[in-house]
Write a structure and sequence with these properties.
The complex is a heterodimer of chains A (112) and B (115). With 112 residues, chain A is mostly beta strands. Chain A contains no helices and eleven strands. The chains are: A mainly beta (112), B mainly beta (115).
Chain lengths: 112, 115
């Protein structure tokens, strides 16, 4: 079973385009994370959300708890944004120590 | 800016051998995690660790795996007798506190190749 689903799986965009990556989850959650994984494999945390919206530079993350859905938006995309973007959630039914359930990721390629 | 570090970056071993993957979490963090990512698949939780004991572990984390904080700064993952299917990227993470609203900081990963 896939508790966290992301779409699209792959995304190719032209530099400057507005990009949206979606994440839907089936479990009750206490928080949702957006992570970025570069080709070398390292993972960087972008956002942690429990409600509403957060913005950091050209990145915006939103979450709708009732609809169990989150989106990651990138404005004015740039080739350096090319990476895999991963949605991960913390289920309210798990233990208390914070382990995450991950989606499969969305591979973004931004062409110059 | 403080960061989580992991060594080695790449480990190649023969099937059946023991490996120890090392992590140095951020110094004031109290909660530690290991995750793994088999090539082409999603990241999976292995284990969380707090106060010198395992807090949670997944089904993947069987008797072949163990974790330790041997000296107050390192956090290690040991695989006793490696199998081919243990080949993966292993990520260490740490957080200042527990629970959903504590951000986890990830290390760069160790790529384990079992031959």
């Amino acid at each position: 079973k896939n508790e966290v689903e992301q779409s699209p799986q792959n995304l190719t965009a032209q530099e400057g385009e507005f990009i949206t990556i979606n994440c839907s989850y089936s479990v009750g959650i206490s928080a949702l994370h957006w992570l970025q994984q570069h080709p070398g494999g390292g993972i960087v945390s972008l956002f942690m959300l429990s409600s509403g919206k957060k913005k950091h530079g050209r990145l915006i993350a939103t979450i709708n708890i009732q609809e169990k859905h989150s989106s990651l938006h990138i404005t004015a995309s740039h080739p350096r944004d090319s990476a895999v973007y991963i949605c991960a959630v913390r289920s309210i039914y798990g233990g208390s120590q914070g382990n995450l359930i991950f989606g499969k990721g969305t591979k973004l390629s931004v062409k110059p | 800016e403080p960061e989580v570090t992991q060594t080695p970056s790449h480990q190649v071993t023969q099937m059946g051998q023991e490996v120890i993957l090392r992590c140095v979490p951020i110094s004031n963090h109290l909660y530690f995690y290991w995750y793994r990512q088999i090539l082409g698949q999603k990241v999976e939780f292995l284990v969380s660790f707090y106060n010198n004991e395992i807090s949670e572990k997944s089904e993947i984390f069987d008797d072949q795996f163990s974790v330790e904080r041997p000296d107050g700064s390192n956090f290690t993952l040991k695989i006793r007798s490696t199998k081919l299917e243990d080949s993966a990227m292993y990520f260490c993470a740490s957080s200042e506190g527990a629970g959903a609203l504590r951000e986890q900081f990830f290390g760069p990963g160790t790529r384990l190749t079992v031959l």
